[in-house]
User: What shape does this take?
Amino acid sequence: MNIWRDRDNRRYLLLLFLLCVMLAATALLFCRVQTQRMQAQLVFHDQAVAGALLERNVPPETVAAALTGEGDAGQGRALLRQLGLSEKTPPWLLAPVRDFSAGLYRTALTGTLLAAAALWSLALLFLRRQARSLHNATRVVRHFSHGDFDTHLPRSDEGALSRLYAAVDQLATALQAQNTRAHQSKEFLKDTISDISHQLKTPLAALCMYNEIIAGEPGNIAAVETFSGKSALALGRIEQLIDALLKITRLDAGSIVFEKAPHTALSLYRLATEELTTRAALEQKELTWQGDPEQPICCDLIWTAEALGNLIKNALDHTAAGGHIRVAWERSTLMLRLSVADDGGGVAPEDLHHIFKRFYRSAHASDRPGVGLGLPLAKTIFERQGGVLSVHSTPGEGTVFSVSFLTEP
Assistant: This one.
């Protein structure tokens, strides 16, 4: 970790450096002042000695020689020892040394106290800034904990704290996204439950009514047969709804693993229309295919047939008797395209952008069967395998659903 990247650290270390420079300059000044004081003390002492000798009529030449002499033959030391003065004499007994020591200690103590005060002030200033920054960060984190993500921790500076703030901000962003997803999931679940209850309410109410009619007229064979058939249709609608819900829930939960393998387009078409050809014939609608029967397509055969079948069911639902539904496929250099086209009434422009929403039912299709899950299920299946589902419709002329897959290299 590079401490120089933190602006507060740089300021703190710069102030420490300036303080060290000031201390060094103060020490030099202190030494100079003490040298001058020592010089003054020595001069004062020599003056006192010279004055005492001159008062005793010692010749000035002798006094000068004594004061300027640099050596001692031993007589001076012996005399001083007789007077009780030596290197072991306590300093406070020597007036010059006592005065010098007192001044030295006062100056040293004053300088030490000033340096300590400067260091303490600098440390307190740094810690106060850090405390203020941490206090603000704590306040922002408290907002995060209460779900308020409007404020952010500072990221402008570099350094350890700034990197920590950035990491906490990223965590807050992830929490916000998670909360948003959770809220959306909750709303989606609420809407789904509401839609399911609404979809089940109609057939269940019809079943109850049919059961009451049958129970009320057990001897009326025609009524029993009629309402038994209607009960079967209502039960089929409930079964269709539950089956579609289970499939789309498994896809949402990610429990479906698509096992893609090469298959021919014709085999996919036949599996998708296995249960629809009879319906088309009964409803007097023509169901045809167009394309190379050996055209390979890499997909999960079962699930892709389910999705293609839902598109064909939608076309059958919106095509009148005598209509035509055509399933075609063609391959270009980069993609394979499947299409389901009908010549029915088409999709109203205001419905075109909503038909892939779950449980969406157009006001123009209230008289047609379905629960609004077939197209969303088909779209999910195709997209999970890398396909893109699109729709083009002209009211009164028909609708074309197209699925595009990138071709395998």
Q: What stands out?
A: The beta strands are 261-264, 286-290, 296-299, 324-331, 335-342, 388-394, 398-406.
